[in-house]
Amino acid sequence: MTGRISNPNLALWIAAADLSHGELARRIAAEAMRRGHRQIAPNATRIRRWIEGERPRPPVPVLLAAVLSEAAGQPLTPGDLGLMAAGPTLDDIQLPLLTEAAAQALAVWTRMDLFLDRRDALRLALGTPLILAAERMLGGHARRLNRDTKGFDADTTAALEDVTTFFTKADASKGGGLYRSAIVAQLAEVARRVQDGVPPSLKTRVFAAAADLAALAGWVSHDCGRYATAQRYWSYGIYAAGEAGQPDRGVEIVTRMSHQMIYLGHPGDALGLLAVAGAKAELPATRALVASQTGRVHAALGDERLAEKHLVVADELVAEGLGDDVPDWVAYFDAAEHAGARAVSARDLACALRPRAASTHFADALALRKPGFERVRVMDRIGLAAALFNEGEPEQAARAARHALDEAARVDSTLVASRLNTLLNAARPYRTADVDEVCTRARDLAATRPTPVAA
Predict the structure, then answer these.
(1) What's the chain's Rg over C-alpha atoms?
(2) Which of 353, 361, 418 lies closest to 384 in space, CA to CA?
(3) Judging by beta carbons within 10 Å of its beta carbon (0-12, 13-18, 19+), is residue 161 exposed, middle or buried?
(4) DSSP count for the chain of H helices, then E strands
(5) Which residues contact 302 (CB under 8 A, 6 or more apart)?
(6) Lowest-confidence range among 18-22, 102-106, 162-166, 324-328?
(7) 3 state DSSP class of 225
(8) pTM of whole model > 0.85?
(9) Mean pLDDT, residues 192-216 taken together
(10) Could you state, in order of their start, the residue ranges of all structural domains in the chain?
(11) Tens of pLDDT along 431-450?
């Protein structure tokens, strides 16, 4: 191929279709004729110019997508081919289901994230496009073009696994704010190496580690308020999980996306994502996770009946045991995590319906939490204090809040800060010296990690 490549997505899909420029031009002209567009008759030179960055006028992008969809055996849109007016698919949560093209898109996202430092560079996906993207990614199968295998060997794969494990533990313990840039930089290196090629013998390990790293990059980005960026990393994580042959890993990542929708006040989108995830979940742990989170969303909507229906399903799955071989990436979901979902659900339903003992569930979660999950333990402690305020126990609440704030000061997380806002709202009716003291401390701590919404 001669000339510069300014539209790598188009170049890669043409290569995947195994069509010469001349043959592609002929098929586009035939498709145009079939649809009644007699004036459209590109040639090989025009195809080359499109690859170099020239944008064809409508209806050519649609015709080109139709021809390449048939030839490549993969449904494609003009956006998949890099032919949207906004440029390459930087603003589209859907990844091209092609190994090198997906890695190239990831490389661009990480470059924007690390060097441009613009939180508004990507738009948050909401509504139907978000749900359809998740469904497509969970059900898609990628095609690989690069036959070179110099991107990874056994040593670099083991190093990737080790550093991913380290970052995962560090985030759970201290929050991801300190490590986010390093995690994103590691993911950028993964994207570069994937484009250089992955040996077949290492494919499962490489993409499993990449899925874990992308899921983590999304989570710490969400925890730092970079919501659209988090979606893009999660979308690559779902893609990588599929490449690794771990569909339930992709399901778990979709639940993270649904958590974000709850957090940002879009419960309908959260339910849509969970419906997609639930249809694909097979492992007991992921089925229980989806059921628990679905119950939580219905509680946020004030629907006690549906909340209890799904929470009971999760109760039963957890009680039966989630299996002897629970994968590391979902091992965090256990009786403690479900108790936390029960607690938040009880809190939300108390606001919508009648007082409930959310404090009991928060206490259960704290008693069950394993070592190494300090951030979520802090969130449980803050939740317990807020629940006690809501339940008319200000003295107990103030004592619990004091303990929670001591621990919260050691965790760098806007999720913790937003839980502090929930505490402040619950404490508002009370005016005592002890309550004023903890509220002042909570406000000071929340101000260092501002967040726009409560969770």
Answers:
(1) 24
(2) 361
(3) middle
(4) 20, 0
(5) 348, 349, 352, 353
(6) 102-106
(7) coil
(8) no
(9) 94
(10) 1-87, 90-245, 280-369, 371-455
(11) 899 999 999 999 998 887 64
